[in-house]
Write a structure and sequence with these properties.
This protein is mostly helical and 260 residues long. Helices cover 82% and strands 3% of the residues. It has a two-stranded antiparallel ribbon with strand order 1-2. Helix 1 runs antiparallel to helix 5.
């Protein structure tokens, strides 16, 4: 009996070690891709800003975003149709990377280098969110998702805020994300971290997770969003962007201590 218990513990320890090793590889790969993506983006922007090479990037952007649309559609279809888990795991990565590349190409084609800073921020946010997803519990991922969407909204509002469709769309999308995170936390808190999706019970948070931090973050960010719209001040939105960064850093400290 004791021998079986020891063997069970050893097997569990080996599984945990393999999981930890895989996480290290994923985080390392994500960081390497982040650095390469930022370097490549910087090079492309330099080439695009030069009159003699402008046309090369302009024509390539059309091909890239069209190809990315095809890859996104193909990855979704393959994920639905195929049943082998080892193969299906690849397609979410294909979808996200294709979507990221497609959005970048589309923005470069129609806005030239106007959103260069935003593109750097977008790539950094996507890879950092993935690293957070690998290293931390799912609460911090949702917390960061809310902070990132709000931070991007405040960034764009800091460039100019007016009564137009752009302002309305950004506000609606951000409000929906904040509401979705808060609602998810509320539903999960009532069912020990689980929610029902399409008739199936899905474990999204640990059983003893605290929804308070998510409520507070979504409430503060939501109030900042409303204040930006009411005041109509680009300067206030600029300060709100730093408020979103401060909230994210506070969440990083809080959830790091929660790992113990």
């Amino acid at each position: 009996m004791k021998r079986m218990e020891v063997m069970g513990k050893n097997k569990k320890s080996t599984v945990n070690q393999n999981t930890n090793d895989l996480t290290v590889y994923k985080v390392g790969a994500a960081f390497a891709l982040l650095v390469l993506a930022l370097l490549a983006l910087g090079r492309i922007l330099n080439v695009y800003a030069t009159g003699s090479t402008f046309d090369v990037v302009y024509r390539a952007s059309q091909t890239v975003w069209t190809l990315c649309v095809i890859l996104c559609a193909a990855s979704v279809a393959a994920y639905i149709v195929l049943r082998k888990k080892s193969i299906r795991k690849v397609f979410p990565y294909v979808f996200v990377l294709s979507l990221l590349a497609g959005v970048t190409a589309l923005d470069l084609r129609y806005f030239w280098t106007e959103h260069a800073t935003a593109l750097y921020m977008l790539h950094a946010a996507v890879y950092c969110l993935y690293i957070i997803f690998c290293l931390y519990r799912s609460e911090f991922f949702c917390f960061s998702l809310a902070a990132v969407f709000a931070g991007f909204s405040f960034y764009f509002y800091s460039k100019g805020l007016g009564m137009n469709a752009r302002t309305a769309i950004i506000a609606i999308v951000t409000a929906l994300v904040l509401a979705a995170v808060a609602l998810l936390a509320n539903r999960a808190a009532k069912s020990k971290g689980s929610v029902k999706l399409f008739g199936k019970t899905v474990k999204v948070f640990p059983a003893k997770f605290s929804a308070t931090a998510l409520y507070v973050a979504c409430t503060v960010l939501g109030c900042c969003l409303v204040a930006c719209l009411v005041l109509g001040s680009a300067l206030f939105a600029y300060y709100c962007m730093f408020a979103a960064i401060a909230i994210e850093l506070t969440g990083a400290v809080y959830y790091t201590f929660q790992l113990k």
